[in-house]
What does this fold into?
Amino acid sequence: MDYEKLVAEMRRLALEAGDKIMEIYGQDNFEVKSKSDDSPVTAADEAADAIISEGLRAAFPDVMLVTEEQAATHTAKGDTFLIVDPLDGTKEFVHRRGDFTVNIALVEGGVPTRGVVYAPAKSRMFFTQADGQSVEETGAFAKGQVGETKAISVSNPDNTALMVVASKSHRDQATDDYIGKYGVRDMTSAGSSLKFCLIATGEADLYPRLGRTMEWDTAAGHAVLNGAGGAVVRFDDLTPLAYGKEDFANPFFIAHAPGVELKAG
It folds into this structure.
């Protein structure tokens, strides 16, 4: 894989999709439909998916592509592929909370190795460079040229005073009970894949997810966290979360800075 080309394409396509998403976000009304699993989908999901999938297929025609909005891709088999969630956090989008992201990642041998997470309403972009190191771009987000970036790295956590990030839309008692096993200084909430990025930048130490997610929800954030020195493990046995699973469904998991002393579930 030509990582220089890949990162440039993923970044550009995320920005183009973000522009289309914000165009629809700014409208007075947009239609919200329900998918077969009752999750919401909007014109923004579909338009962003078209931009990204067409761009990736043109640039990397020989690489398997899995995208949330194209059910035909969900039967693909392999451990090396591009995976896309064109608008993660549709509920945040619908309720105009801003915590939604564009997510594009490369999985190699079951491991997310390169990815981009772009939050257009928050003007935050995180991605892995060609060498695998994760950065946050703080520049003007020009399509053809990377702006100013800063390397990001996980925290060196104090296990008596952890910063925990949890979902805005999916908090439940089981999650709260698990968090209660730790020494917690404070908690914050974030939508979509931004939770992985908050750990990658050291703004949080721990993100447990005791709920259903799919690989396209997590791959890009996981790649960014990997490139910042973090890790994502299964909740049940604390082994690394792998990709290319049957139906692309994830088990419960924990994203964390390696210095966190993980507790059993």
In short: Helices lie at 3-25, 43-59, 90-94, 173-179, 194-200, 215-226.
